[in-house]
Every structure is written in structure tokens, then in C-alpha cells.
Alkylation response protein AidB-like acyl-CoA dehydrogenase
Amino acid sequence: MDFDFADEQVELRQAVSRWLEREYGQQRRRRTMADGGWDSQAWRSFSELGLCGLPIGEAHGGMGMGAIEAMIVMEEFGRHAVPEPLGHAWLGAQLIQRCAPAHMASAWLPRIAAGEAWVALAHQERGHRHVIDRCTAKADRDGEGRFLISGQKDLIPAGDKAQALIVPAMLDGAQALFLVSLPQAAVRMEVYRTVDGRGAATATLRQAEAQCLSADVGALEWGIGLGIAHLCAEAVGLMEHAMALTIAHLNTRQQFGRPLAEFQVLRHRVADMKMEIELSRSMSYWASLGLEAEAPARRLALSQAKYQLSRSMKWVGQQAVQLHGAIGLTDEYGLSDYVRRLYQLEYTFGDGPHHLAILSEAQFADA
């Protein structure tokens, strides 16, 4: 199988990398995170670069690119620890593009591609962990045939900045996806920070007006799979930069009159980090390529990737901190942004044990 990137994909990576190197350094990242993890000017720049509409079809003003291009961009965003939730914005846009009626897609996709709006997936509920087929939010129809949603959804990335939420809710005994436009009085947002310093929100809906996005029971699972593929690519970029910071520290810091990089035991640990990152990269490719497979094979490929990435993210982050010594534990040093983000991603869209259970069930079924 040929894993070489096409010329256009290489140019896309170079363009995104150059812009991030020039415009999105540590100072801007720290300033953005201090302001809640959202920079409106940066989001406009993403739109001007075409990134907001990267997976959106050209008919709706997007670039019409696929999973591999999204993976390339997310790696670069991970390498610079960009706090704005571009991957989550793509997830919402692609759910609309794949599942929504034509009039809904025409109303939202051009706005998303232009950077004027973004739609957040709000699927997590307390007490359900990472299981997506359980849902306590409920949808009712009023006398005029409109849908009204009641329930609570947690850990919505930058939820207070979104112009709409995609909300799973029970309708006539089955789970469906609904689009809830914001702001509206029936939706109350509680904003807080996650462990990686980014903003998140809990949305409490009390008879909030909504439109039915899709009654397909597999739509949410497909969306979560898309989020896993984006997450894996971001994690590869994060781990690569954490290792680069570690190598620079070992080459600079001296002990007993010699750079730390000359001590063989430390070189071996860096080599182990490199091997773990390469394994993660392979599984990230596997996840992005698996998005086009049939549901059972797709589910298996994404759980395999997320399980491996969950292990690698934690291990590489720990090694980076330990090889830095005391400075690796400080928030003032840039490494902390990467390690905290890796820990947050480990528990996003299902942690390691959750996906290991899925893989175990699949093996028992085969047996």
C-alpha cells in the first residue's frame, strides 16, 4: 500500500505549518487559553485559509477535501497545540453534510465554511461514561409539530461559542439527532475549564426548540468515529512536539559536565518514545482510512486506533515530563500545554478501557 502523500497534500501541510509557525506561537496560545480557549481573530484566519470549510463540499463554499487532508491539518494543529476546536467544528459540519435535509444543509454549511458559525456536538451525559446508545434527553412535539428538547449535555468543547448544538435525544422510543440553534432562552450554558485549559460547557435544555437532523441510529456512531480519527491525528502532532522539546532539553541541559543526551539510558528512552509515536502514526492512518469502511469494520478500526493512542499519549507524556526533570512539572514551561492536552484526549470519545472492551467483545463474537 502506498502511504506517500500527493503533492497537493504536501503543499497543504506546508501552508498550514508555515502559518502556524508565523502566527500561532506559545504566547498567542497562552493568551487564547487565558481568554477561555477561543480567539475570534484566529477563527477568521482559519476561514481565510479555507480550513473551516475543508471537508465541506464545493457546492456549499467548502474545499471538498477528505479524511487524509483533515488528518494532515490536525497533525499540524496538534504540533502547535492550537486550542480552537477545529476538529469538532468539522465533526458538526460533516454530520450536517451527511445526514441533514437539503434545506438545513444549505442554511448552515455555507456559514460554517465562511467561518461565520460553527456547530458543536453535544452528546455526553452524566452517568453514561462513553456509551453513546444511552440517552436521557427527550424530544417532544408541540401542537404545531415543532420539536422541543429537554435534558442536559456535558463537556461541549467551546459550547458557549457555538451557534448551534447537535443533540441526541429520545423520540418515540428511539434515539435521533436534533439541531438546536443558539442562543435561545430555553438553553442555559454553564462554562468551565477542562484539564488542558480549554473552555467547555454544560448545556441544560428545557423545552428548547430544535430541528430533526437525522433519525438514523448509526449517525451518532459515525460522527464519534470521525472525531476519533481527528483526535488521533492531533495526538500524533502533540507527541511529536513533546518529543522535540525533550530532545532539545537533553541536548542543552548538562550533568557532570556532559549534555544529558550523551547518557545512553536517556537516549534509549527517547528511542522508545519515537517508536511509540511511529506506532501511533500508523494507527492514526488506520483510523482515517477506516472511515470509509462498513460499520462493523469501521467500528473495529477506530477502537483499535483509539486504544493504542490512549496508551501512547499517556506514556509519551510521562516520559517527556520525567526526562525534563523538575521543569517538566511547571505550567510556565511549554511542555505542560502538550502533556495536559494529551491527558484530555485520552478520555475524549472513549478512554482506553472503553475501547479495549469493544475490541474484546468483537473477539469473543468472532470466537
Summary: The longest helix spans residues 219-252.
